[in-house]
Amino acid sequence: MKEIKWTDATSGALTNSVQYPPVEQTNTYIGISIVNITKSDWDSWKSFKCAVDHQNEEKSVQVEKKPPTPKVILLREPKGNNQILFCTVRDFFPKEISVKWTKNGKDETGFTNWDPQKNGETYSTLSLLEVPNSDWNSEAVYSCEVSHRGKTYTRKASKVPITVTLKQPRAKEIFQNQQAQLGCVITGQDKTTVEKSQITWKIDGQTQTGSTTGTAVPDGNVYTKISTLTQTFDDWLTVKKVQCSAEGEDVSPVTQEIIVQKDGTGPKITIYIPTEQKGEKVILMCLVSSKVKQDYYIAWTDDNERLNGDYTDGITFPPEKTENGYSVISLYTTTKTKWESNHMFHCNVRHAGSKEVFNSSVSRALDFLNVTLSLSCVQDDPEDDFSSLWSTTSTFICLFMFSISYSVIFSLHQMKKN
């Protein structure tokens, strides 16, 4: 085997190479040559050629640091009667690049391109297209097409190709399985667009792995795809922000985020019962109030479920601002049979950033007792010493009756459970 020669991009010979004697292996020979180049030459993506003349035929191979793939992102920002479309291209080399726009597949004019700027070892650039709202609302498809090193990278944007909904953790999973289960729902009218959308999760800025994503399924007139990310409850206690993003070839990034509201203040919990029970269902309402805004996880149980460690999600509404702070409402539906059988129902509450559990309980028996006592034990304002004495005496009687009634009801309730 003749000498293995090294040259640079200008065909200049590299003399600082080392060639080893050929080694026989399975009736063939292997020749090895090593050349040293400077880090600056390698990092500048210079190319080098390794060549050998064998049996009057030259064989060669090109060696170079593989340039990074350009990162193309299409963003949109409304501005008055127009939509501003930004096409950012980052981390590419060499500098030569071409950016153009199309509308429904036809070349668009009037866009502005910026000269590539060097950022470390790579370049970045930006292209801007201003679109009238009348065109944008017509659901026209705009494409940013980037050509670099013989390849074309395309990002498309149109009016709401998909929507992203990020759901809070289910209270049932937090109480029952000590897990925070987050759901990211992708919705769109085009099945292919929804199916090909790539979903990325971030917690406090760090990309997360381990999520599970389903396929696009019909949901009325649209298609949906759900991605689920599960955290242990201990890990969830430290979380401040969650982001879910969807991106695809025909979709610029759409991101939703949850800012975890946590203060550590214990809530006040009140359960309300409808004055009229109609039909075979009874709806209980749990009002959770606090002076500060924070996230609450509300799950319901009855006595049997509580013994088995089972919890049920109610219908929980977003926090509302009140005169004295914030409140959250959760609705729970039970059967009339259970309610009239004096089952005890519990509204269980945790607030973000804490393992502490708050709860309030109610049953038909306790509700009936409260109503009876409110009717029989509230007296008019005393008018004289006699009425004052009677008021005091009646209060003691009511308290005595209350203690007896409560003991009887509690005993019956315990017997029913056993």
TrEMBL record:
Note the superkingdom of the native organism. Answer: Eukaryota
- Tell me yes or no: is Isomerase among this UniProt entry's keywords: no
Which InterPro entries does the UniProt entry name for this protein? Ig-like_dom, Ig-like_dom_sf, Ig-like_fold, Ig/MHC_CS, Ig_C1-set, Immune_Resp_Modulators
**Full protein name:** Ig-like domain-containing protein
Could you list the residue ranges forming a coiled coil in this record?
Answer: none
For this UniProt record, the keywords arranged alphabetically read as follows: Immunoglobulin domain, Membrane, Transmembrane, Transmembrane helix
- Using the record's annotation, list all stretches that form the Ig-like domain: 70-163, 267-363
Q: Give the residue spans that cross the bilayer.
A: 389-412
Species: Ameca splendens
Record keywords: Transmembrane helix included? yes
Instruction: Write the lineage as a comma-separated list.
Output: Eukaryota, Metazoa, Chordata, Craniata, Vertebrata
Record SUPFAM superfamilies: Immunoglobulin (SSF48726)
